[in-house]
Structure of DUF2500 domain-containing protein:
Amino acid sequence: MFSPFGEAIFTFVPIFIGGVAIIIFGGIIFIAVKSIGTWNSNNNSPKLTVPAEVVTKRTKTSGGSGDSSASTWYYATFQVDSGDRMELAVNGSQYGMLADGDVGMLTFQGTRFSGFERVNNG
């Protein structure tokens, strides 16, 4: 029995799979290039220490369904004297040491958090 779709499927499927593979690999390459660009930009930025206030903190959690483990990312938003705000990724222990309203000296390089030293107002 002859089917007009029988031969077409053998042409379409490899093209479709190749297209999906190109999209996936293109996305991986795009993310890698973007990450290297951010890393390079941070390395070429000056390391600054400025007065700042912790405005807020947040977490982002993903995974954790079924047998997979959850991953948590920690962020803190700082406001500098000019009124500008910046959200920087921090690690879990740094996140735990920060509280909304803390005032101190923020050290950062580009988008990379380096430290926060609280100023004792008492």
Remarks:
- The mean pLDDT is 91.
- The chain has two domains: 1-44, 47-118.
